[in-house]
Amino acid sequence: MTGIDTTTELAESYQKHGFAVAERLFSEAEVAQLNGVIAEILDRPDLSEVAETEPDDKTKARRIWSPTKRHVAFEKLVAEPRLLDLIEQLIGPDILFHYSKLHLKAPKVGSIVDWHQDFAFYPHTNTDLVTAMLYLDDATRENACLQGLSGSHKLGLADHYDNGHFRGKVAGPGAPKPELAVPIEAPAGSVVFIHPLLLHYSAPNQSDKYRRSFFAAYRAADAYPIYYGPHASHNEPGVKLLRGESSDTARVEGGSWRLPLAERPFGSLFLCRRGATSRRAPRPPVTRP
Fold first, then answer.
1. How far apart are CA 256 and CA 50, in angstroms?
2. What is the distance between the alpha carbons of residues 279 and 263, in angstroms, rounded to a whole number?
């Protein structure tokens, strides 16, 4: 997938495909500094204090939640004008920071991320949300780059339930065929902008190379959450205005969203898929005017 040269092309690609790539938005030196910060965060005897570890290798971290709260370098990064200038083209001038995370696909053990849509976990009154995924390593199919189903953001919210339970993934007959996925390959320092309804996944990392990625999620100031379950509500205290003006009005798109009801809190999509699921009877979706 080639990168974008202008903000106009970025917005056009985002609207057409559900994702867009700004290649080498950050320099090699900036990427190296951030990878150094990750090593600093993980430099402790017990990784579980700061990270979720790989189930098959507890010496390897697979996810760090809220790196913006762990180091000032990531806190500054989410407000970087280079990012916000592009995000403004996608969701408008009034921009809220939503949450952040790091996925660290370690060599040989990097976990699969099944097909899903981010919006399934965090439904809002409208879909002007976007995730900026910064590749901190060269990302290719070999080391499990992100893969997306082009245009799937126009098809609504897919079924993330299994037998009436929210699983946080699209599986079975409704899952996209892998051969239809577009590998979103890009060099380190590139940013992939992901629509909240884009169906996407990444394979296990079976290479001998890392594929580290920083995720910063944003939303328009008039996009309000409609679900306050434990895995979503904990983000709200950290939401802050980065650009433009706040809104006292929720802009509502017509339609309905099924809520991600779970039996107990889950710390990540990985844990949700391993069994933190609802045993309640299915509930009707929230219908919006």
1. 36
2. 6
Burial of 179 (0-12, 13-18, 19+ CB in 10 A): exposed
Cross-strand bridge partners of residue 205 = 110
The secondary element (H helix, E strand) that includes residue 61 is: strand 57-65
The one-character DSSP state at 273 is H
- Write out the DSSP string of 83-105: HHHHHHHHH-S-EEEEEEEEEEE
Q: Are 287 and 256 in contact (CB under 8 A)?
A: yes
Predicted confidence (pLDDT) per residue in 235-284, tens digit: 899 999 999 999 999 999 988 999 998 765 555 555 455 544 333 333 33
**pLDDT value at position 3?**
60
Tokens of 22: 């700004």
- The DSSP code for 271 is H
pLDDT tens string 88-106? 999 999 999 999 999 999 9
Break the chain into its structural domains and give their ranges.
Answer: 7-288
Q: Which CATH number fits domain 7-288: 2.60.40.2080, 2.60.40.10, 2.160.10.10, 2.60.120.620?
A: 2.60.120.620
Which residues, 6+ apart, have CB-to-CB distance to 90 below 8 Å?
10, 11, 14, 128, 130, 193
Rg (alpha carbons) of the chain, rounded to whole number: 18
Which residues neighbour 274 within 8 Å (Cβ) at sequence distance 6 or greater?
none
Q: What is the pLDDT of residue 280?
A: 34
pTM of the model: 0.90
**How many Cα atoms within 13 Å fall on the side-chain side of residue 286?**
17
